[in-house]
Amino acid sequence: MNNTLDVIDLVTLAEGCELECKSAQGRDGQGELPEDFWKSYCAMANSDGGVILLGVQEKPRGVFHALGIRDIERVRKSLWDSLHDRHKVSANLLAERDVVPVEIDGKSVLRVRVPRAQRQVRPVHLGRNPFGGSYLRRHEGDYQADDESVRRMMAERVEESRDDRVLKGYDFSDLDMETVAAYRNRFSAVKPGHVWTDLPLPEFLTQIGAWGKDREEGFSGLRLAGLLMFGHADAIRDAFPHYMVDYQERPEPKAEPRWIDRIVPDGMWSGNVYDFFRKVYPRLTANLKVPFQLQEGQRVDDTPVHEALREALVNTLIHADYSGRVSVLVVKRPDMFGFRNPGRMRIPLELAVQGSHSDCRNRRLQTMFTLVGYGDHAGSGIPKIYKNWAGQHWRRPRLYELADPEQTLMELSMSSLVPDDAVRALEEHLGPRFNALPQTDRLALITAQVEGVVSHDRLKEITTDHPADLTKRLRALVQEGLLVPDGAGRGTVYFLPWQRPMSDSLFDARDPTKEPVELASEPRELLSQPQELPGELQGFDGASEVPSFRQWKDVPPLLQAELLQIAAPARLQARLPLGDLQNIIVQLCAGRYLGRYVIAHLLDRNADDLGQRVLKSMVAANLLKQAHPAVTDPRQAYTSVNTGHIEE
Questions:
Q1: How far apart are the first and last CA of the chain?
Q2: Contact between residue 404 and residue 517 where contact means Cβ atoms under 8 Å apart
Q3: Which of 82, 165, 201, 342 has the most crowded CB, counting CB atoms within 10 A?
Q4: CA 387 distance to own-chain centroid
Q5: Residue 134 in 3-state DSSP?
Q6: What is 431-460 written as a DSSP string?
Q7: pLDDT digits over 4-25, tens only?
Q8: Top mean-pLDDT range of 9-23, 253-267, 420-434
Q9: Which positions fall inside the Schlafen AlbA-2 domain (predicted)?
């Protein structure tokens, strides 16, 4: 057998990709393809891909045991037969090289590499019906995709450009003419003498792609791109109910959303995408230290940093899924800039960083920005950001995705890769021991000091070491007491023993399955609270005197310890009887409101599954009370109706 894996390789797999292990022993012990293999196949294909090992058992979590498969060819044939059966699964994504026998601890197992499916294939589903047959990978588990997620994947599949559709019932009255005039002025300045410059307004809007014709139904009208670029906010929300663009300037290098300047569609301006760009870009670049440069006798005020911020802002707007549930969010802090758009990337992140791969979600918007000198079609925007940031010797940008709700985030830190203050702090704690460590170890500790946590994926971004070597170094630092692990598998992060296990992420969303960012998607919700609550009211629900904690970071440290002790039986036993689980939840929520992501974090469960399978039924049974009437309210939290014992 040519391919071999050992225990270290298994650990590397678990930290480097999604890993699912199935014993696949069959009734006769000779080996059999398990039925739940296909849920994992679909879930990985619809998410980020991964590896399924048949003939390996993971028990307890994070500990692998090779069982082997006696008749491995029978299992492999069964897999290929089912892959070519459209009644079984909708798409075959595998090649021969993806399904190979490997040896672990002297036993033959079958390794199946599942790639991330291209958007033209998603959702990959069981049977003929994507609704009910599609699955997503969440927190190392396979969960049935809800209808909204399925519809979004299907829209991404059939619509090359999401903003191309011609709208019925919209006309010029839905456009903000001041925005249109500002765009035309910019177009004239960038392209003096262009033949479109003096065209009548309808023809100009047609040429730039804001107005078009639906040739199948035979009517002309405003495209979605034109509405987003030039429309009034209320008209945009008629098409996209969750539409929100949000800029915040925060005074301190902290994740807490306190701001000294903010731009949202508040009725004082149009609220459209182009005006948002025009208002935000000057604020992003204000107070940048621009070196004095002359070009042909004229001072040049546009630096690589200006260019990187401009590309990041345009990328955020043209790649956003405006039908998504989160806002477009741009944040400026003294130490960094952050950009978030609803929707995940249409191509894998590594391809986006490499460049020359472009699959823009809103191509009409992209064209309109390009026509006035912002962005390009060559797929070079993100590589340009990375290159320009590296030229300042700043920390490598962070580009990452969150799965629930779907969003893409980019963080541009203005701190050095090796900040002096971080080195001094580590030397104070560790003394000469720190400087005696290998370079990769020092970089891991510095990253944990600066960013709050370090992970296997983050180290891969900032070092050239092999992934297996990074796993060994992280484990060695844990054994030496220099790092503390949190989580398991690919979700494992490491923090310094003297620090809290938290990320200094701009959006404070290190673990999307436990602590998603909770931002209002409607302006009325944002504007109903124009300032932060006074300190004495923080942590209390607005409709109650009972303390409320919707995210784990909001829970005071002493209460965290108390709650973790209550939840310990559930964290130690994945298949706890339902009555026991409900009893623990009642105790956790006694005298306080807890958000479902806090409860899920305490129980080490998937938040979506917990909400649907347990919390919803507990509310119906009058065991829990909701803080807000609407189940989907982003502020939703739960408190116990009583603290009595629940009988099975």
A1: 51
A2: no
A3: 342
A4: 23
A5: strand
A6: THHHHTS-HHHHHHHHHHHHHS-EEHHHHH
A7: 666 656 766 776 678 889 999 9
A8: 420-434
A9: 17-145
Residue recorded with tokens 């040519």? 2
* pLDDT in the model for residue 85: 93
Please check whether residue 628 is in contact with residue 619, taking contact to mean a CB–CB distance below 8 angstroms.
no
Per-residue pLDDT, 530? 30
List the one residue out of 549, 551, 628, 621 whose CA is nearest residue 586.
621
Domains and CATH numbers, the chain: 4-158 (3.30.950.30), 241-413 (3.30.565.60), 420-495 (1.10.10.10), 536-640 (no CATH)
Q: Which two tokens stand for residue 92?
A: 């075959």
pTM reported for the whole predicted model: 0.69
Tell me which residue of 212, 213, 207 sits closest to 183, measured CA to CA.
Answer: 207
The phi, psi pair for 493, rounded to 5°, reads -125, 160
Q: Is the peptide bond before 123 cis (omega within 30 degrees of 0)?
A: yes
Count of other CB atoms within 10 angstroms of residue 529: 10
Residue 336 φ then ψ, to 5°: -165, 170
Q: pLDDT (tens digit, 9 = 90+) per residue, 89-130? A: 999 999 999 999 999 888 999 999 999 999 899 999 999 999
Taking the C-alpha atoms of residue 621 and residue 618, their distance in angstroms, rounded to an integer, is 5
Indicate the burial class of 419 (C-beta count within 10 angstroms; 0-12, 13-18, 19 or more). Answer: middle
Residue 43: closest CA among 143, 148, 154: 143
Q: Is 46 helix (H, G, I), strand (E, B) or coil?
A: helix
**C-beta of residue 183 within 8 angstroms of C-beta of residue 190:** no
Residue that the structure tokens 């989907």 belong to? 632
Mean pLDDT for the chain overall: 84
Select from 41, 46, 235, 49 the least CA-distant residue to 152.
46
Which pLDDT value is given to residue 644? 63
3-state secondary structure 221-287: EEEHHHHHHHECHHHHHHHCCCCCEEEEECCCCCCCCCCCEEECCCCCCCCCHHHHHHHHHHHHHCC
The confidence score (pLDDT) of residue 109 equals 93
Lookup result for tokens 């009972």: 546
Q: Of 402, 386, 396, 382, which is closest to residue 329 (Cα–Cα)?
A: 402
Residue with tokens 């911020």: 309
Residue in 631, 607, 398, 397 with CA at minimum distance from that of residue 511: 607
Instruction: Judge whether residue 536 has pLDDT over 50.
Output: no
In percent, the amount of the chain with pLDDT more than 70 equals 85
